[in-house]
């Protein structure tokens, strides 16, 4: 897939870090947006499907691509093969599956894994082989596109599995299944679980660990931009040193999503400064309108530039599979994130602008904010009313006048010294405790 | 025997070093006579025993002493035995020194064993002991103690000898029997055996003229031999003879080379030819004694040609394997060319090529760079590159990637410092050189005897170069990253970074440096690598300057300039230190490390870049903080220079780089960017830069910016408001730029002002503190310092932190090159990363396809990603400073 010039499509960079199945939603999106010729996308889909077991689906696509009614021979063969394999796996996993389907039996399981294994072995003749078969069966189900089945089996597999490696794999599988079923809440839980394991587990090489983190971040994109609380979560996850390092080294394109999250999320302002530094450092390796927008506002203070970037950002967001999610509202669909983004970006510009100005002409301001005069006035009045802005409007001259924010010298001095007494007090108590401790000894 | 006696005696007084000639003459007279006698006798063989070098002589002396000891034992004379024992120990020292052997010769060990046995016997025999004269028994006791002490030193060898007394003899060369053995007495036999035991080593010899006639005779014999009579055996025997002569006293090294070269022509099988060629090359290496001098250039060239011939043979006869780990069988080389199965020949191509490279390097070190000779010498480089390339190809074909990586490193090291232009020139030169060489070759080939084994030139004599130096570097370094050992990889990485920096890819170069973690452990590496590291840092600094990243440039260079030892750190000259006298030994070592002139980084340019960077950062900084109690210093070095220049009553017109920058600084402090730039523009060094105009443009822009900032810092208190237009005109910058710069200052709270948008003015706020207020601020500042130090004292008491402070200091005190880098600071920021894991695999199911970058760098990306955090702090230095200053104004609650 070659990249067309304007649309800043990240699919080629994102896709390698995703599971095969996770790429489908992206392709669907691209197809809908018509960024690429249909044919190309269909071909790509078939290519993807060839390695999975979703043969029926592949056949359908093949038919629509070449406008024929016959599926190619190899696909038919493969279908037969897949079905056969499914059968055999099903058989292998059957004892455990029946056990798990029996609610009475399941109740016998306890929190103690060792006990469970022992119990299964003794009473149901279910050994490691069967458990392994369950895993294979679940994996196969996943490959076939039966995500809910896979998710259930994997959940149960995890309670029985003793192999750490396998259990991680099962977790990834569960995560993918939940994402594909769009159960964002559960998926988020799974994500955190995987993260925990990645962070705590010891890897063969640090590279492996980084790679795992990058996978996790990519997979997380689905969740973060769909879950209600995702935008805070994404910042919390990505800004962590370990993850930020991974982004910087191997996947700078993720900065786009982080930047977007920062812009639309007001709650994580304190970390923004840190992020700006990262942007400055990475500007040579990755360029993106959204990132550049931040750079314009916070590094170069180039507000006209920011203005231009904002327009480009709009384009980017609409065409991004993660950001440009549409909500159908009656006849026409909107991209909720886009509006949110623009609103917040505007606020960003204005905020910074105000910080360095004493007096601003309303007309200029309106222009800068992409609003007309009345709208701008209303907007500012709103800001002042919600006391987000310490300013007054001078209607006569048509200007906004900022209130000076210079702290008083006395105040500063008081602030300086305020903490000192507390610190000293703490020190003294510490000292006393220490000496008492020693005396007691 | 008396002859030898004289010799033994005369020796004890001579403290002869190898160079000492005078007293050797008398010894050698005897020696010669003695030898001549012998050689006249052996008419049956066509060799002459060549004269004995110093080493042989020493052995003879030793043998005589041993003989005397034997005699003393027979008559049970412990007094003389003791004397002789002391003597033999003294002689041993000399022998060891000459042969540079680690192990004492067998003869000596044998004697020790004999003595020990005899001593035990004597002690056991109580009756005999009683009968001894008092002096004799005293000597016996003394001897017992001495021997006990002495034998402890050689315990291992003695045991070995006792186990297998004959082992050593087995390795005797073939020429033993046809040599002049019959009229040599026993001890000579011993000495000879000892000689051949030792790896024949380089010795100096000064007396080869006298033997010339004999050499000629020998040569003649070689030449006059009827080609039809030459057999493998004959050649082999000849070869052995010549080899035995190698390193002995009186063997002319040039003759040795000639003889061997001739032998290569008459060698019967390719393997034999190969074997002899190896010896030729070793002999050529020996031509130059000592470590300081370099190999004559002519010999070097021949050496390279020989190496190429070796490769020709190896490529043509693929069944021949070169190896230095196995001891080949005696007649391995007699196997004909069409022998199926591998023929093993002893040799180490990597060692040879490294030696050749080192010799090339040394010759460049010692030739005066301003002469024609130097340029001529540089022209030989393509020749070496061709050879290295061929050898590398050969290793790759043989699957020996480790060796290939080593050779590749040599190639990398000879191109990494070349910018694209020089690289192009070298490419062109390589084509030209080739033609000349072919003509020369043709001449040489028309010698008297054409060789039996004619090897066609299979291996290309011309190095092939990819279009760009970068492509070549990429090719080579990726091979090294895959296969090299640690040191090779580290060096290749440094060269890679250097080359990236040379090509102005600052980002890539910096990332490589940070990810490779080289800064952390560079001080544990060898000095030559440390020098390379320093060079890389210097080049990185220059690169950052060229792309306009002044802060980065300064942080790369500042540590290099923190001491007054730039020359030393870059190995581009020796700097005299006033306080610390160097020993001659140190000086010699240092001289050996020097970079050849063509690899130098221009020091003037480096200094200019460093000082200009420091100026651009320091001048506004000084202006901003002029009133503050606690000054923040960015560049100590710069401050010091500025102080010196300010102390002068009159300022002369600038002469050197430093003067220029100081003059520019004076102008800049006043906000006079025009003069500042003009002064810098007049610097000579700019012509060293490739895209000089654009860089000067950048410098000018930066000067304007900093002048504007300085102006605002200095004079803001005098203004109520300033119009944007006026500022833009004053500093010849666009209004947008002024706006951006001033806005940045406002946000960072460096400037207490705000824009008045309708009138396009900067309005300054009244923040100037009164005297009382600023004193109050100072007081609070001091109070908080006090509180902090109290806390720290408390922590130290109760065993909190505090320790990391001292360890930090230790870090900053690293000696020598390790200190010359931004490393010291950067590495402090590194967090420990990568939990060294035991288990853990790739995720098996749910196939994700990791998109992995290039192998080694990829690996290091993994390993080194944590260091990015460090770079984060570094890159954002300016911002952080702004914020800390902000904090100092209204430092709120500290938790």
From TrEMBL, chain A:
Note the Gene3D superfamilies from the entry: 1.25.40.570
A GO term, aspect molecular function? translation initiation factor activity
Q: Which UniProt keywords apply?
A: Cytoplasm, Initiation factor, Protein biosynthesis
List, in alphabetical order, the GO biological process terms annotated in this UniProt record. Answer: formation of cytoplasmic translation initiation complex
- Report the Pfam families cross-referenced here: eIF3_N, PCI
Q: Name one GO cellular component term.
A: eukaryotic 43S preinitiation complex
In terms of one coarse class, where is the protein primarily found?
Answer: cytoplasm
* Residue ranges occupied by any PCI domain in the UniProt entry: 223-407
Q: Where in the cell is it found?
A: Cytoplasm
How is the quaternary structure described? Component of the eukaryotic translation initiation factor 3 (eIF-3) complex.
Family per UniProt? Answer: Belongs to the eIF-3 subunit E family.
**Its job:** Component of the eukaryotic translation initiation factor 3 (eIF-3) complex, which is involved in protein synthesis of a specialized repertoire of mRNAs and, together with other initiation factors, stimulates binding of mRNA and methionyl-tRNAi to the 40S ribosome. The eIF-3 complex specifically targets and initiates translation of a subset of mRNAs involved in cell proliferation.
Name of the protein in question:
Eukaryotic translation initiation factor 3 subunit E
TrEMBL record, chain B:
What GO MF annotations does this protein's record show?
RNA binding; translation initiation factor activity; translation initiation factor binding
Enumerate the subcellular locations listed in this protein's record, separating them with semicolons: Cytoplasm
Biased composition, class Basic and acidic residues, residue ranges: 152-165
Q: Where is the composition biased (Polar residues)?
A: 25-37
Q: Where is the composition biased (Acidic residues)?
A: 11-23, 166-203
The alphabetized list of GO BP terms reads: formation of cytoplasmic translation initiation complex; translational initiation
Gene Ontology cellular component list: eukaryotic 43S preinitiation complex; eukaryotic 48S preinitiation complex; eukaryotic translation initiation factor 3 complex
The residue ranges flagged as biased composition, category Gly residues, are: 834-850
In this chain, the stretch annotated as Disordered covers 1-49, 147-212, 793-895
Q: Where is this protein primarily located?
A: cytoplasm
Domain PCI: where?
Answer: 597-769
Entry keyword Protein biosynthesis? yes
Keywords, ordered alphabetically = Cytoplasm, Initiation factor, Protein biosynthesis
Q: Which Pfam families match?
A: eIF-3c_N (PF05470), EIF3CL_C (PF26569), PCI (PF01399)
Q: How does it assemble?
A: Component of the eukaryotic translation initiation factor 3 (eIF-3) complex.
Q: What does this protein do?
A: Component of the eukaryotic translation initiation factor 3 (eIF-3) complex, which is involved in protein synthesis of a specialized repertoire of mRNAs and, together with other initiation factors, stimulates binding of mRNA and methionyl-tRNAi to the 40S ribosome. The eIF-3 complex specifically targets and initiates translation of a subset of mRNAs involved in cell proliferation.
The record's family statement is: Belongs to the eIF-3 subunit C family.
Record protein name field: Eukaryotic translation initiation factor 3 subunit C
Organism field: Brassica campestris
Taxonomic lineage of the native organism = Eukaryota, Viridiplantae, Streptophyta, Embryophyta, Tracheophyta
């Amino acid at each position: 897939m070659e990249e067309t010039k304007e649309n800043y499509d990240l699919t080629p960079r994102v896709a390698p870090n995703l599971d095969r199945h996770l790429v489908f939603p992206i392709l669907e999106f691209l197809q809908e947006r018509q960024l690429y010729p249909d044919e190309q996308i269909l071909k790509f889909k078939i290519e993807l499907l060839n390695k999975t077991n979703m043969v029926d689906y592949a056949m359908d696509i093949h038919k629509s691509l070449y406008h024929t009614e016959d599926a190619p021979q190899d696909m038919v063969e493969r279908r037969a093969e897949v079905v056969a394999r499914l059968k055999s796996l099903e058989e292998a996993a059957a004892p455990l599956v029946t056990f798990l389907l029996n609610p009475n039996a399941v109740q016998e399981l306890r929190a103690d894994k060792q006990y469970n294994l022992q119990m299964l072995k003794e009473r149901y003749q279910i050994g490691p082989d069967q458990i392994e078969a369950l895993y294979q069966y679940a994996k196969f189900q996943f490959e076939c596109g039966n995500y809910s089945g896979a998710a259930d089996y994997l959940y149960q597999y995890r309670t029985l599995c003793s192999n750490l490696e396998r259990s991680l794999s099962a977790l990834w599988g569960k995560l993918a299944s939940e994402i594909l079923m769009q159960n964002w809440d559960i998926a988020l839980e799974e994500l955190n679980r995987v993260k925990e394991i990645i962070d705590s587990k010891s890897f063969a090489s640090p590279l492996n660990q980084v790679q795992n983190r990058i996978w996790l971040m990519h997979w997380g994109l689905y969740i973060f931009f769909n879950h209600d609380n995702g935008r805070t979560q994404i910042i919390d996850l990505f800004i962590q040193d370990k993850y930020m390092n991974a982004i910087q080294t191997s996947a700078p394109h993720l900065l786009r999503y982080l930047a977007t999250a920062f812009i639309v999320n007001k709650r994580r302002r304190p970390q923004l400064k840190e992020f700006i530094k990262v942007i400055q450092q990475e500007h040579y390796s990755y360029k993106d309108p959204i990132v550049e927008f931040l750079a314009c506002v916070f590094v170069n203070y180039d507000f006209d530039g920011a203005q231009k970037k904002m327009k480009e950002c709009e384009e980017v967001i609409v065409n991004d599979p993660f950001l440009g999610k549409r909500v159908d509202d009656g006849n026409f669909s909107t991209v909720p994130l886009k509006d949110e983004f623009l609103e917040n970006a505007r606020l960003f510009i204005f905020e910074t602008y105000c910080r360095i100005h004493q007096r601003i002409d309303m007309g200029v301001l309106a222009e800068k904010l992409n609003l007309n005069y009345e709208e701008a006035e209303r907007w500012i009045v709103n800001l002042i009313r919600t006391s987000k802005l310490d300013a007054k409007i001078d209607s006569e001259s048509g200007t906004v006048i900022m209130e000076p924010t210079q702290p008083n010298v006395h105040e500063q001095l008081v602030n300086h010294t305020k903490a000192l007494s507390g610190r000293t007090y703490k020190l003294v108590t510490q000292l006393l405790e220490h000496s008492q401790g020693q005396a007691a000894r | 025997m008396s002859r030898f006696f004289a010799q033994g005696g005369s020796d004890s007084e001579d403290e002869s070093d190898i160079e000492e000639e005078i007293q050797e003459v008398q010894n050698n007279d005897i020696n010669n006579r003695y030898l001549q006698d012998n050689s006249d006798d052996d008419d049956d063989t066509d060799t002459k025993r060549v004269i004995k070098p110093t080493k042989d002589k020493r052995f003879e002396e030793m043998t005589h002493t041993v003989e005397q000891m034997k005699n003393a034992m027979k008559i049970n004379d412990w007094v003389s035995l003791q004397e002789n024992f002391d003597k033999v120990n003294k002689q041993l020292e000399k022998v060891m020194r000459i042969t540079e052997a680690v192990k004492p010769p067998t003869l000596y060990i044998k004697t020790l064993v004999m003595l020990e046995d005899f001593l035990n016997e004597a002690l056991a025999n109580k009756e005999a002991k009683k009968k001894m004269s008092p002096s004799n028994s005293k000597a016996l006791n003394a001897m017992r103690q001495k021997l006990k002490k002495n034998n402890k030193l050689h315990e291992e060898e003695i045991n070995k000898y006792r186990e297998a007394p004959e082992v050593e003899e087995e390795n005797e060369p073939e020429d033993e029997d046809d040599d002049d053995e019959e009229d040599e007495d026993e001890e000579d036999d011993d000495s000879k055996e000892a000689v051949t035991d030792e790896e024949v080593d380089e010795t100096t010899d000064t007396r080869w003229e006298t033997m010339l006639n004999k050499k000629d005779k020998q040569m003649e014999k070689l030449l006059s031999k009827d080609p039809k009579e030459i057999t493998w055996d004959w050649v082999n025997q000849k070869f052995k003879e010549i080899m035995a002569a190698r390193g002995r006293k009186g063997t002319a090294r040039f003759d040795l080379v000639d003889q061997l070269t001739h032998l290569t022509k008459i060698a019967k099988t390719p393997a034999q030819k190969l074997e002899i060629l190896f010896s030729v090359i070793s002999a050529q290496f020996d031509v130059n004694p000592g470590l300081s001098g370099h190999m004559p250039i002519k010999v070097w060239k021949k050496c390279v040609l020989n190496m190429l011939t070796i490769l020709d043979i190896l490529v043509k006869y693929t069944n021949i394997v070169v190896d230095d780990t196995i001891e080949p069988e005696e007649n391995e080389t007699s196997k004909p060319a069409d022998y199926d199965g591998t023929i093993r020949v002893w040799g180490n191509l990597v060692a040879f090529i490294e030696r050749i490279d080192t010799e090339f390097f040394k010759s460049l070190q010692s030739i005066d760079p301003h002469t024609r000779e130097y340029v001529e010498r540089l022209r030989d480089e393509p020749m070496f590159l061709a050879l290295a390339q061929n050898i590398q190809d050969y290793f790759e074909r043989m699957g020996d990637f480790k060796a290939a990586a080593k050779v590749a490193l040599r190639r990398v090291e000879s191109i990494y410092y070349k910018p694209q232009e020089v690289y192009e020139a070298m490419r062109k030169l390589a084509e030209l050189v080739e033609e000349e060489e072919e003509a020369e070759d043709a001449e040489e080939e028309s010698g008297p005897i054409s060789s039996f084994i004619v090897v066609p030139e299979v291996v290309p004599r011309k190095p092939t170069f990819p279009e760009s130096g970068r492509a070549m570097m990429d090719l080579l370094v990726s091979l090294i990253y895959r296969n090299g050992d640690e040191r090779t990889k580290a060096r290749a990485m440094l060269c890679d970074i250097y080359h990236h920096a040379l090509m102005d890819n600052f980002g890539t170069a910096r990332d490589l440096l940070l990810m490779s973690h080289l800064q952390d452990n560079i001080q544990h590496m060898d000095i030559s690598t440390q020098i390379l590291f320093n060079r890389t840092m210097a080049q990185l600094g220059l690169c950052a300057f060229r792309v306009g990243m002044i802060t980065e440039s300064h942080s790369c260079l500042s540590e290099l300039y923190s001491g007054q030892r730039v020359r030393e750190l870059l190995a581009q000259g020796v700097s005299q230190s006033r306080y610390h006298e160097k020993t001659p030994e140190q000086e010699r070592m240092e001289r050996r490390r020097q970079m050849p002139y063509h690899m130098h980084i221009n020091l003037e340019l480096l200094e200019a870049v460093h000082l200009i960077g420091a100026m651009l950062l320091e001048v506004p900084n000084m202006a901003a903080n002029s009133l503050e109690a606690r000054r923040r210093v960015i560049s100590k070095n710069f401050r010091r220079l500025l102080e010196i220049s300010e102390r002068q009553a009159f300022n002369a017109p600038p002469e050197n780089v430093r003067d220029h920058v100081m003059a520019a600084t004076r102008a800049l402090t006043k906000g006079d960017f025009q003069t500042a730039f003009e002064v810098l523009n007049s610097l000579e060094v700019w012509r060293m830069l490739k895209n000089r105009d654009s860089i000067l443009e950048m410098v000018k822009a930066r000067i304007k910016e900093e002048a504007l900032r300085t102006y605002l810092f200095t004079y803001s208190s005098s203004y109520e408001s300033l119009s944007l237009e006026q500022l833009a005109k004053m500093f010849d910058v666009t209004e947008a730029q002024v706006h951006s710069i001033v806005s940045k200052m406002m946000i960072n709270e460096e400037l207490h002002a705000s824009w008045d948008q309708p009138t396009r003015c900067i309005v300054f706020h009244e923040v100037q503190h009164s005297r009382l207020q600023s004193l109050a601020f100072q007081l609070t500042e001091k109070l908080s310092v006090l509180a902090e130090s109290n806390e720290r004292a408390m922590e130290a008491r109760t065993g909190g932190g505090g320790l990391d402070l001292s360890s930090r200091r230790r870090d900053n005190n690293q000696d020598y090159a390790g200190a010359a880098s931004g490393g010291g600071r950067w590495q402090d920021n590194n967090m420990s990363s990568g939990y060294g894991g035991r288990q853990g695999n790739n995720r098996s199911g749910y196939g994700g396809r990791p998109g992995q970058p290039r192998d080694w760098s990829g690996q290091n990306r993994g390993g080194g990603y944590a260091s990015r955090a460090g770079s984060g702090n570094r890159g954002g230095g300016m911002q952080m400073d702004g914020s800390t200053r902000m904090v100092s104004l209204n430092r709120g609650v500290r938790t």
